[in-house]
Amino acid sequence: MESKVLKPILAVYVGLFILFLYGPFIVLGILSFQQGPEGGPQFPIIEWSTYWYRHLFGLTPPSRIAPLPVGEALVRSLTLAFMTMVTATVLGVMAAQAFRKRFRGAGIVFYLIVLGMMVPGVLTGLGTSLLANNVVGVERHWWSTAFLAHVVYTFPFAFLVMLAILNRFDGSVEEASWSLGVSPMKTFRKVTFPLIFPGVLSAMLFAFTLSFDEFPRTLFASGRDQTLPLAIYGTFSVEIHPNIFAFGVMTTLFSFALLAVYGILMGLSVRRAKKMAMQEDIA
Amino acid sequence: MTQSDPIFRLEGVTRRYGDLTALDGIDFVADDNAYIALLGPSGSGKTSLLRVIAGFETPDAGRIWFQGRDITDLPAHERGIGFVFQNFALFPHLTVFENVAFGLRNGAQTLSKAELTDRVRTSIDMVGLAGLEDRNPEQISGGQKQRVALARSLVMQPKLVLLDEPLGALDANLRERMQIELRSIRERLDVTFLHVTGSETEALAMGDKVAVLDAGRIIQYDTPDTIYDGPVVSDVAKFLNRFNLFDGTFKEGVFSGPFGALPVSNARKNNSDTYAIRYDRTQVFDAHDANLPGPALPVRFLASEYLGSSIIFLFETEGQKTVEVDHHLSLGEPRHLTVGERYTLSWDPEQAIVFGKETAR
């Protein structure tokens, strides 16, 4: 009885949820195929075209609409996201590894790290820039102050992912390795790391994506040269053209590609063993 | 066995976890080239002891000597002591061959490729796993995993291998086969096995020597038959699971228990007054039989349990205590007993072991 009422309600709820999740992207996706250069960022579609995609890559004849100033910003953001990913993941793995032993003050340190996630991003960004300018006296750059802000922001995520992985990790394989005369460092490289690698991948993915589209912290901390989200926001203040939408579609596709790589790597590390099992059976 | 140097020695080894004392000043001298079974109930500290010897944990006090060297402060990977885990702890991302080769490949010593392959193959052959080298741990059975874990340890040619309830995860059939194999593998190599177990049958069957651990102390260390015939304290008798134990009072050479008062010529020092008689030395008589070899214990018959070579009869005393009688079938057909009926149990008092707070004579 209950499920007869509840099930359709839940189904509608899930449907609405997914609609709201993907709705904006679908609208942007459709509008990115607007006719150009006259067509604006609104319905109806005057005529379907790939004008704005070509415009993005400078393949259209010059018009009054300037090309999107995102090329350098994109490279910057990718570099920053990569740097952040590597640093935050390394720190996250190390910190989570440290938490496997209950050291003194472990509880307090844990909450300090995790509560850091709750501090409003704008304040962190502002604080970082004030710290850099007025206290330490260094110039702000995307690769210095903004990088620092990004690492501080993404580190707790990487840490929590690794903590969850290491919580389920059976330490007896490490002890087995020690008892075979293998040093703790080498044990980490040869045993622990390969086994927690799927978790490391997840932490990397988190750090990269969080850094790649980070806005509030970067706003104040990045200095003169803008990252991609800032550059995009900057174009809003003039006039919005569908080239922004085309660009949005491209970056989203890029993110999906990244996810696909993640999925493949993940699958490989899990499936390797199973594939070998099949070969054995055939042989 | 000839008099030889101890392979390892413990001096007052103590390990605490907060308020809990897992190891309470253990002194122990192990025989070289022997199979030592370490018997203890759960919570007796037997796994802690193994982990301390292996170097996975540091003792709070005491010293550990291995081959005449103090290894208390040496990290696990520099000790050269093998360890076989209850859950096997194989490296899931490596093949059987690579699991066994792991220590040779990644340890301090460098071997030529041929030598490494040779040693790994010898080790794999010894535990009877030839042909499975390329399998992954998830593709082999529990018993095979056990062998890989053993081969992985033995390929390093350790002088001491610690086995933490190695048969606990195997089914009964396999357990018996592995018992025999573990013993024969050890005999072929010059190595001491320290085998931790909670099963008294396993300990008595496998050990050249058995150490009984209770509440963080080794309370007896001797050959299995000595322990079986002469537990030094009542706790050992309890763990052996072969004795009917009766509480009572022991005073001036007389033990008073549920079977009345008995003069006792000899008692062992103990922290309680306990009277012990082995299951297979307890005999069943009619309720009013006057012709008894010793004391009379009135009981009620509860049930019997057929074990193939013997039958276990379960009785209940007037004080609701369960008493067991083990009748070996080679001694002839057991008498027929009716459930709920009253009987008398008796035994030769010479075969009883009495533990007392005060000792006789």
TrEMBL record, chain A:
<keyword id="KW-1133">Transmembrane helix</keyword>
<feature type="transmembrane region" description="Helical">
    <location>
        <begin position="73"/>
        <end position="96"/>
    </location>
</feature>
<feature type="transmembrane region" description="Helical">
    <location>
        <begin position="108"/>
        <end position="130"/>
    </location>
</feature>
<dbReference type="InterPro" id="IPR000515">
    <property type="entry name" value="MetI-like"/>
</dbReference>
<feature type="transmembrane region" description="Helical">
    <location>
        <begin position="191"/>
        <end position="212"/>
    </location>
</feature>
<comment type="similarity">
    <text>Belongs to the binding-protein-dependent transport system permease family. CysTW subfamily.</text>
</comment>
<dbReference type="InterPro" id="IPR051789">
    <property type="entry name" value="Bact_Polyamine_Transport"/>
</dbReference>
<dbReference type="InterPro" id="IPR035906">
    <property type="entry name" value="MetI-like_sf"/>
</dbReference>
<protein>
    <recommendedName>
        <fullName>ABC transmembrane type-1 domain-containing protein</fullName>
    </recommendedName>
</protein>
<keyword id="KW-0812">Transmembrane</keyword>
<dbReference type="Pfam" id="PF00528">
    <property type="entry name" value="BPD_transp_1"/>
</dbReference>
<dbReference type="GO" id="GO:0005886">
    <property type="term" value="C:plasma membrane"/>
</dbReference>
<keyword id="KW-0472">Membrane</keyword>
<feature type="domain" description="ABC transmembrane type-1">
    <location>
        <begin position="74"/>
        <end position="262"/>
    </location>
</feature>
<feature type="transmembrane region" description="Helical">
    <location>
        <begin position="12"/>
        <end position="33"/>
    </location>
</feature>
<keyword id="KW-0813">Transport</keyword>
<feature type="transmembrane region" description="Helical">
    <location>
        <begin position="142"/>
        <end position="166"/>
    </location>
</feature>
<feature type="transmembrane region" description="Helical">
    <location>
        <begin position="244"/>
        <end position="268"/>
    </location>
</feature>
<dbReference type="GO" id="GO:0055085">
    <property type="term" value="P:transmembrane transport"/>
</dbReference>
<keyword id="KW-1003">Cell membrane</keyword>
From TrEMBL, chain B:
<protein>
    <recommendedName>
        <fullName>ABC transporter domain-containing protein</fullName>
    </recommendedName>
</protein>
<dbReference type="Pfam" id="PF08402">
    <property type="entry name" value="TOBE_2"/>
</dbReference>
<dbReference type="InterPro" id="IPR017871">
    <property type="entry name" value="ABC_transporter-like_CS"/>
</dbReference>
<dbReference type="InterPro" id="IPR027417">
    <property type="entry name" value="P-loop_NTPase"/>
</dbReference>
<dbReference type="InterPro" id="IPR003439">
    <property type="entry name" value="ABC_transporter-like_ATP-bd"/>
</dbReference>
<dbReference type="GO" id="GO:0005524">
    <property type="term" value="F:ATP binding"/>
</dbReference>
<keyword id="KW-0547">Nucleotide-binding</keyword>
<dbReference type="Pfam" id="PF00005">
    <property type="entry name" value="ABC_tran"/>
</dbReference>
<dbReference type="InterPro" id="IPR013611">
    <property type="entry name" value="Transp-assoc_OB_typ2"/>
</dbReference>
<dbReference type="GO" id="GO:0016887">
    <property type="term" value="F:ATP hydrolysis activity"/>
</dbReference>
<dbReference type="InterPro" id="IPR008995">
    <property type="entry name" value="Mo/tungstate-bd_C_term_dom"/>
</dbReference>
<dbReference type="GO" id="GO:0022857">
    <property type="term" value="F:transmembrane transporter activity"/>
</dbReference>
<dbReference type="InterPro" id="IPR003593">
    <property type="entry name" value="AAA+_ATPase"/>
</dbReference>
<dbReference type="InterPro" id="IPR050093">
    <property type="entry name" value="ABC_SmlMolc_Importer"/>
</dbReference>
<dbReference type="GO" id="GO:0043190">
    <property type="term" value="C:ATP-binding cassette (ABC) transporter complex"/>
</dbReference>
<keyword id="KW-0813">Transport</keyword>
<keyword id="KW-0067">ATP-binding</keyword>
<feature type="domain" description="ABC transporter">
    <location>
        <begin position="8"/>
        <end position="240"/>
    </location>
</feature>
